[in-house]
Amino acid sequence: MSESPHQASSSVGRRLLSALTENQVEALLTGVAEAGFLTRLVERLRSADPDLADTVGRFLETEPSAEVVMAASDRKALEMWNHLWGDWESCVTQLGDAEGDYANHEEHWHPPYFDSMALTEDLEKAAQPMLEWLDRAFPLVKKPDLFRAGVGEIDEGIRSFPDWMQPFEDCCVLGPQATTCALRWTWLGFTNESSPGPQFADSLHGLENEVKRVDLDTDACVRFFSQLPEGAARAILAHLRTDDYAESVADVRSVWHRVRL
Predict the structure, then answer these.
(1) Are the CB atoms for 186 and 141 separated by under 8 Å?
(2) N or C: which end of the chain has fewer CB within 10 A?
(3) pLDDT of 51
(4) Pick from 119, 52, 71: which is nearest to 92 by CA?
(5) Phi and psi, residue 214, nearest 5°
(6) Structure confidence at residue 205 (pLDDT)
(7) φ and ψ at 172, to 5 degrees?
(8) How many other β-carbons are positioned within 10 Å of the β-carbon of residue 149?
(9) For the stretch 109-139, what's the b/e string if a residue is b when 16 or more beta carbons lie within 10 angstroms of its beta carbon?
(10) What is the pLDDT of residue 46?
(11) Last residue of some domain: 40, 66, 92?
């Protein structure tokens, strides 16, 4: 049975990938592009792989200095996001393990304890490249509660440490970049709703009441709220005057007190 044109093309592609170094593949694609062949290939590619065709077309229309994030295909963006989220998850999976990365054993005169600062720093490192890809990834992942659930997993992981390792005071505070990731992702989940501002605020307020060992960075929260569209910000301000927020707004240590101010 003979190969279809698409199968034959794929076979050639696989053989070339096996036969050439990464630099040689780069040189080959550069030569193809400079010879003008990519322009002729776009429509031919569309029937086989629309995402590939759209990506090549977008690439041809953008300036050479355009960001990789904007030029990447949907599959590449999703692949990159899954890799970055895997780095985040690898931190979270260490929680609850008395011999894991966040059980500090360095002080021989002190029993092992949960090292919240180390967790904060590692999550911050994981979050930094996420910010670059977040807007591209959100519609592809189709999980608007991803970070809300992620914060819940951190809270659960901290609480699963043995009692003698539990911190006496609250808690793990996410860094500004990790906080911004959580806020931005959550906000994107409400942008198509009729009243996104109040719904966004209620989601965060509910999360705050659900988790006991994780806080968001207050300064990052205030900064994020201040940069929301004016209509959403005004709606949130009015919403904070309702009875549901009275206690939180009155607490000078609460992020809602600062947001209201």
Answers:
(1) no
(2) N
(3) 77
(4) 119
(5) -135, 135
(6) 96
(7) -95, 125
(8) 10
(9) eeebbbbbebbbebbbebbeebeebbebbbe
(10) 76
(11) 66
Q: What's the CA gap between 100 and 108, in Å, rounded?
A: 17
Residue 151 zone, left/alpha/beta (φ > 0; ψ -120 to 50; rest): alpha
- pLDDT digits over 105-149, tens only? 776 667 788 889 999 999 999 999 999 999 999 999 999 999 999
Please state whether 144 falls in left (phi above 0), alpha (psi between -120 and 50) or beta: alpha
The residue from 66, 84, 107 where one domain ends is: 66
| Gyration radius of the chain's alpha carbons | 24
Q: Are residues 111 and 16 in the same domain?
A: no
pLDDT at 26: 77
Domain that residue 162 falls in: 74-260
Beta-carbon contacts of residue 76 (< 8 Å; ≥ 6 apart): 55
User: Do 130 and 138 touch, CB atoms closer than 8 A?
Assistant: no
Distance, in Å, from the CA atom of 170 to the CA atom of 172, rounded to the nearest integer, reads: 7
| Domain identity same for 47 and 84 | no
Domain count, the chain: 2
Taking the C-alpha atoms of residue 86 and residue 4, their distance in angstroms, rounded to an integer, is 36
| Residues 225 and 256 sit within 8 Å (Cβ to Cβ) | no
